[in-house]
Known about the structure:
The structure holds two protein chains of two kinds.
Chain A: H1 29-37, H2 77-86, H3 128-140, H4 149-169, H5 175-197, H6 204-228, H7 239-248, H8 262-266, H9 271-274, H10 277-291, H11 294-304, H12 307-322, H13 332-342
Chain B: H1 6-25, H2 29-36, H3 43-54, H4 58-63, H5 66-69, H6 72-86, H7 90-110, H8 117-140, H9 147-162, H10 172-186, H11 192-201, H12 212-228, H13 232-245, H14 251-267, H15 274-279, H16 286-294, H17 297-306, H18 308-314, H19 317-321, H20 324-342, E1 349-351, H21 352-361, H22 368-380, E2 386-389, E3 394-397
Antiparallel strand pairs in B: 1-3, 2-3
Helix pairs in contact in B: 1-2, 1-3, 2-8, 3-6, 6-7, 7-8, 7-9, 8-9, 8-10, 9-10, 10-11, 10-12, 12-13, 13-14, 16-17, 16-20
Amino acid sequence: MERSGHFQRRNPSHSSPSSSSSTSYRQSAHSRSNRFAKSAPNSVGRRISGHQEPEAAKNEPSDPPAIAGTCPFMCPEEERAQRERLRDLAVFERLNGNPSLSSPSLAVKKFCRTITSKQVRASDVRPLPILEDTLTYLLNLLHSAKHPFEVIQDFIFDRTRSIRQDLTMQHIVNDRAIRMYQKMVKFHVISHYKLRNHSSFQDASSLHYLNLEQLTKSLTSLFDLYEVNRSSNSACENEAEFRSFYVLLHLGSNSQLMGESLSLWFRHVPSSIMRSKEMCFARELLRFFRFGNYKRFLNAVAAEASCLQYCIIEPYVNEDVHDPHLIPTAAQLSCSIAIIQLQCPAPRVYWEEFNIFET
Amino acid sequence: MAHVSMGEAHRRIADYLNRFADAVSYQDGASLKKLLSLSSNSSSLLSLADALAVFHDSNRLIKQSDKFSHLAEILLPLFRALHSYRIGNLVDSYQSYEKSANAFIQEFRNWDSAWALEALYVVAYEIRILAENADRELASNGKLPEKLKAAGSFLMKVFGVLAGKGAKRVGALYVTCQLFKIYFKLGTVHLCRSVIRSIETARIFDFEEFPKRDKVTYMYYTGRLEVFNENFPAADHKLSYALKHCNRQSEANIRMILKYLIPVKLSIGILPKDWFLEKYNLVEYRNVVQALKRGDLRLLRHALQEHEDRFLRSGVYLVLEKLELQVYQRLMKKIYIIQKQKDPNKAHQLKLEIIVKALKWLEMDMDLDEVECIVAILIYKNLVKGYFAHKSKVVVLSKQDPFPKLNGKPVNS
C-alpha cells in the first residue's frame, strides 16, 4: 500500500512518516526530470524541532473508511472529458492521433498526488476487476514498436501509480493485489535495466532514478501485502524472488536510496524465505561483492541469476570489472585478464516474451 | 468476567472517578499513573472494567459533577478503552486510549510543574503497547496493521509538548526511547534521525540532566543504529556507555547490550574471553571468537550458519560476515609463522599455493586466482603489508609488521 504523503489522516501539517517523500509527477518526462532537479522536500525534517501543537486532530476520525470504487472504465468519464478539453492526452490515449479526442478503451486514469480519500467519489475510483484489466492493457503496450521505450515507460509509470493509488484507497490487500504488485515491480525492474542501457534520451538518468524510487516503493508495499496474507499462502510462491530483488538492490553504493539498512530489513523476513534458493543466492552475491571476490561473484551470476535478477545486478557486473577500487594492486591487469577469460555470458533477457508477466 | 450488581458497579466507577480527580487536584503523580496503566491488568482496573460492562451511563455520572466534568474528555474514552481492552477488542482499545491520551496531553500542558511526568510515561508506554496489540489483531484479520505507526505520530506530538524550557523537558528522553522501540519494531528507523537530532543538538536539552535509566536506553538504541550502519567506533562508544552505566543487577539488559557490543568489538579486533561469554550466556559468539583466534574460516562459516536465525533477527549477521577478512589475515599470519620457524630467511615470501593448500585442509575449495584476489584485498585494506610478485605467484611480505593489528580501529573500507 502506498505510504506516501497523499494519504493524510491526521493533522495535515504533521505528515505521517513515509519511506520517501513523493513529488508530484506530471505526464511529460521532461517536466518530471525538471522536478527532479529541485531537491525533494524531506517530510521528516519538518519535525526536527518537535514543536508541534497538538491541534484539533483529535476530532478527525482515526480510520478513513475504505472506498468501494464504481468506475467502470480505465479512466473516469469526467476526467477523460476534461483532459480532452484541455488537450492533456498522452499519445497512447489519442483516438486516431487526435490530441483532443480519446475513448473509453484508450484513456487511462492519471496519477494525482493531491487527492485524499475524503475528497474522492466512488465513481472516480476503479474497482479491482477494472484495475486488473487496466494493468494488463498497460503492460501490453510494452509490445508496441511504434514508440521509443522511454515514452512507453513514462506512460506506464504514471498510470500504474494511479492503479496503486486506487488499490490503496479501497484498502485492497488480498492475493489479487499481490499479483498486481508483482507485475508492477517486474515492470519497474525491466525499466531499471532498459533505462540504463538503451536510453538515448537525455534525461534518462533522472528517469532511472525516479523509476528506482517507485521500484523500491512498490517492493516495500508488496512485502507488506505478503505479511498481511501470510496465513493464506496462496499468492506467495514468488515471494522469495521478490525479496531477493531488495537484497540485490543493495549491491554497491546505491544503498543511500534504500533508507534503512539491509540488516534491519533482514529481521523482518520469515526464516523460510531467508533460506530460499533465491535469497541465499542474493545474500551470497552481496557477500562476494562486499568482500571484493569478483570471481565468485561473476561465476554465481552466470550460473544462477534469473532474468529479472540480472536486470538489477547488471550495473555491478560492469562496475566490478572496471572499478579500480576493487582491484587495487599490481595484480590489477592480470586479474582483469583473468576475468575476461572467465567468459561468463550474461543470461539473455527475454522481456519481449511476456512469460515474465504471466504469474 | 465477574458479574457485578448495578449498585456495586456504580460504586466502583464513582470511586475511580474520585481517585482520579483527587490525584489531579493534589498533583499526586504516583496515584495518577496507576489509574492509567491499562495493560498492567491490576486488580483495581480489572474490577473497574467489570463495572463498566454493567453500568453504561458513565457519561452522565461524569458530566453531572463539577469534580470531574472538566476531565470528561480524558475519562470517557479511557473508560471505553478499558472496556474494549477487557472484552478483547484491541483495535478499539487503542483508538479510544489515544483519544484519552490526547486530552490528557492537553491538560498536561497546562499543569505547572512536572508532577505528572510519571503518569505521562505510563501513557506513552500504554500507547505503544496497545498499538502493538491492535496491529496484531489487524494482521490476524487480514488487514494492514497501522496503529503502531499512528502511535509513533502521536508520541512525536508528545515529544513536542515536552520539548520546552520547563522542568518537563527531562521527560523527553523517555518518550524518545518509546519512539525508538516503535521505529525499531516497524523497521522505520530512519525516523529516529529527527528525534536524535533534537536531543543532541537542541539547546534546551542537556543530556546529563536526563534520568540515568533513560540515558542507558537511549545509548543502547543509538548504539544499535550505529551497528546497523556499520559505524563501529561510534557504536563502540555508545554501547560501551550503556554497558558502563547499566544497572549491574539487570543481567538481561547487560546481555542485550553485549549482544551488540561483542560484534562491534570483534570488528575492531578486540576479542572477549570465553568465561565472559559464558557468564552472560552469549555462547553463540563462542565459535566466532575461536575462528578469529585460529584463522579457521570453516569454523566461522559454520558458526554463522548454526546461529543464522538469531544473528539475522538481531541484525548483526552482516557485521559478523565481514569478520572473514580478519580470519583470512590470521590464517596467513599462522602460515607465515610456521614458515618462519622452518626458514627465517625466506619466510616473508609466501607462495600463494601454500595458502590454497591450507584452505583445502579447511575444506574450502579455492583456486589460485581467487586466493590472489583475497590477498589483494587484504593488502588494500591494510591487513597485510606487502606486494605481489605476480609471475611467480608469491606474496612478498613486508619485513616489518606484515600483519598490522587493528588496535581498536575498524578494517579500512
